């Protein structure tokens, strides 16, 4: 089955951007994903390939389903009762809907719109994922992973002297980077970010965007954003959602400079939405 | 015609006064009871009240040491029975139950909470005292334990529901199974609230008399173990207060004073625990 999935031609193939051959293998592939809240159909057969070690941005007006779609990618949608998913989602060719859910979420991490640190110390926040997954590296191992994750999230220098203080003492931007560090600690292959900067000031936003560039070298990133400049700045590919449908998916340059669809052009030029 | 400015001012003044008086009355009643108890109970209180057994009518002195210990034992047992059941029930209610099931559980616990305490006393009399053929500390603990369950369920549920969804999602997003997210994140975040709810629960049943009349009964002597009738403060107050003896009345006042002090103390501790804050941002 996984072989089949790999051979299946992606339905929305963006034009080659001259990347390596590997960059054209989809890391994460949604195929015909429809989603229902009760009887309301929030997503209409979304098919979308997300390239390995690239940043894919999902844009669109509020309520267009981009966050809903993102949440299906690590099966976070299952926490909401009365919802139903149709279609298939492949990670490296195997259907995540048939795997054990905790294993999926280990591989596909998530950062939320509002920073949500645990009411624990900074250290405990980052180490949480290790503890709940039975990490066998000993205390020294945990310390190393925590330090590495905080480095990756560009937070280490700011918190290294207060690792055992409450995470709530950090600023909003720091808390969000802490959440990224927490997600990175379990070494996910894919990182999903749901409007991670919507509650942050421009300086904190810039830090997170720099961070995404750094992370791109080892992680596949999918980011939902309201901010079109942000999508244009950070992403390699962009998908435009409208009313639960994927209107257009292409390289970010194409979407912003030469979109094929009228709706996309109207949205990215600010004529509506 | 619209009311004039003067009319508005008068109405405002009247309503302000009325609500103020009502507020003062509700606070005043508590302070009146408190003051009355302190006045009557305080002067009857001495060291032997805490250390000595009751003495027969006519003898001077004596205390309620057995009732104080008896109450403590009954409350301890009630807590050990009521809180685990109530707590785990609350966890199920807030974290696992479907809407329709939750509605049934909530409704049932509220009904159980409304069952007159004397009815619970009679039920435990039938379930425990009758088969065992005698009154006991154990039966008293069971009766009060049953009374503690509904409040514990609801307070646990409410404090767990107050933990933001975002924290649960954060735990699940790093691969925690649901039960682990509940044990390691949700319950700790709600812990202060749950503890204060438990204390208020204990304070509430500490003064219950009716269920104990049918279960722990009463005892003029020490009641070692869990298997004999036991004196408790509320029943002692009842027995002594309806007696015709002046000495006993004084003892009843003192016992009332002690019981009220205990309940107030637990209440204050619970508020302090809660005011330290559920250290969780809302929303």
What brief labels describe this structure?
heterodimer; A: 273 residues; alpha/beta; Rossmann fold; 6-stranded mixed sheet; 4-stranded antiparallel sheet; globular; B: 283 residues; mainly alpha; MetI-like fold; 2 domains; 11 helices
Summarize the structure.
The complex is a heterodimer of chains A (273) and B (283). Chain A is of the alpha/beta class and 273 residues long.
Element pattern of chain B in H and E: HHHHHHHHHHH
**Fraction of helical residues of chain B:** over 70%
Q: Briefly, what CATH class of the largest domain in chain B?
A: Mainly Alpha
Determine the structural class of chain B based on helices, strands and strand pairing: mainly alpha
Question: Which percent range describes the beta-strand content of chain B?
Answer: under 5%
* Name given to the CATH architecture of the domain at 2-6 and 26-116 and 188-268 in chain A: 3-Layer(aba) Sandwich
Task: Please give the most extensive interface between any two protein chains, plus how many residues each contributes.
Answer: A-B, 29 and 26 residues
The tally of beta strands of chain B, per DSSP, is: 0
CATH topology of the domain at 2-6 and 26-116 and 188-268 in chain A: Rossmann fold
Helices and strands in order:
The complex is a heterodimer of chains A (273) and B (283).
Chain A: H1 2-7, E1 26-37, E2 40-51, E3 55-59, H2 66-72, E4 83-91, E5 94-95, H3 101-107, E6 108-111, H4 122-132, H5 138-152, H6 156-159, H7 172-184, E7 190-194, H8 202-215, E8 220-224, H9 228-234, E9 237-242, E10 245-251, H10 252-257, H11 262-268
Chain B: H1 5-44, H2 47-51, H3 65-96, H4 99-114, H5 117-132, H6 137-161, H7 165-173, H8 178-206, H9 210-213, H10 233-241, H11 246-275
Helix pairs in contact in B: 1-11, 3-6, 3-8, 4-6, 5-6, 6-8, 7-8, 8-11, 10-11
What do you see in this structure?
- The complex is a heterodimer of chains A (273) and B (283).
- Chain A has helices at residues 2-7, 66-72, 101-107, 122-132, 138-152, 156-159, 172-184, 202-215, 228-234, 252-257, 262-268; strands at 26-37, 40-51, 55-59, 83-91, 94-95, 108-111, 190-194, 220-224, 237-242, 245-251.
- Chain A is α/β, with parallel strands linked by helices and 273 residues long.
- Chain A has a domain at 2-6 and 26-116 and 188-268: Rossmann fold, CATH 3.40.50.300.
- In chain A, the strands form 2 sheets. A 6-stranded mixed β-sheet of chain A has the order 6-7-8-3-9-10, with helices on both faces. In chain A, strands 2-1-4-5 form a 4-stranded antiparallel β-sheet, with helices on one face.
- In chain A, strand 4 (83-91) and strand 5 (94-95) form a beta hairpin.
- In chain A, helix 4 (122-132) crosses helix 5.
- Chain B folds into 2 domains: 5-44; 49-275, Orthogonal Bundle (MetI-like fold).
- Chain B contains 11 helices and no strands.
- The two termini of chain B are 46 Å apart.
- Chain A binds chain B through residues 74, 76, 79, 81, 102-103, 105-106, 109-110, 112, 114, 116-120, 128-129, 131-133, 166, 168, 179, 182-183, 185-186, and chain B through 98-99, 164-177, 180-181, 184-185, 188-189, 279-281, 283.
